[in-house]
Amino acid sequence: MSTRFAGKVCLVSGAGSGIGQETAISFAREGAKVIAADIDGAGGLQTVASIISVGGQAIFFKTDISKAADTEAMVQAAVDHFGGLDHAVNCAAITGGVSIPTHEYPEELWHQVLAVNLTGMWYSVKAQLNQMLKQGGGTIVIVASAAGLKGHPNNVPYSATKHGVVGLTKTAALEYATKNIRVNVVCPTAIETPMIMDGRLNFRNNQELQEKFTSEQAMMRMGQPREVADVILWLSSDQSSFITGHAMPVDGGAFAK
């Protein structure tokens, strides 16, 4: 059993389901103390229960990342409960819930998606950086999407925000490269999570659409949350010590086409 993160403190937002949940559990499995943050109390508590059931250490912290005070409080929770913050993974995001072309997209949904996916991500990274600067280092990984590397028809705010967090990552990586803080971003394609299976695209009840997206992967299958979590943990570990500012597709070969 790997102990890459033994004694380390890891904060994961969006830890109540999907990639965030699998990442939080994976960190704990490798020895980390985990703060599982999410706006979804039931999902976050389930993640913590799963960690504790296998002997790990974790707490749940209810967080709405669109509020700066909440992001500051979740970082402070890491300090108060576990003594600091070594690794942060920012998975929390929303899709907007509808498929509508750009000229018809509802203004209120545009602002809602930006508030969480971009402004909320900036709030989160800002609070994490402040703590890591005090400690003398750390790592931050943001979860974006393939929609941050190419256009994503009928969901303009999602694609715009995911492109935005790629820019946020690269800028922060340059600013803190000599401060012992590495910042990277992962860009998954079709991953079998509740957001994609039951959310806006509703893959679970739309086999034709699911097959279309699956066919875009060279591996001809959807990815699993654990496969993204494995990349996130690698980017957070000393095994990737010379990598910062990288936008890494986790794509089953889709971008090789």
Descriptors:
257 residues, alpha/beta, Rossmann fold, 7 strands
Written overview of the protein:
The chain is an alpha/beta fold. The protein has two domains: 9-188 and 224-243, 3-Layer(aba) Sandwich (Rossmann fold); 197-222, no CATH class. The protein is built from eight helices and seven strands; from the N terminus they run βαβαβαβαβαβαααβ. Strands 3-2-1-4-5-6-7 form a seven-stranded parallel beta sheet, with helices on both faces. The chain is globular.
Quick recap:
The chain has 257 residues and is α/β, with parallel strands linked by helices. It is built from 8 helices and 7 strands.
Helices, strands, pairings?
Blueprint: E1 9-13, H1 18-29, E2 33-38, H2 41-53, E3 57-62, H3 68-82, E4 87-90, H4 107-135, E5 138-143, H5 156-175, E6 181-188, H6 194-197, H7 207-215, H8 225-236, E7 247-250
Parallel strand pairs: 1-2, 1-4, 2-3, 4-5, 5-6, 6-7
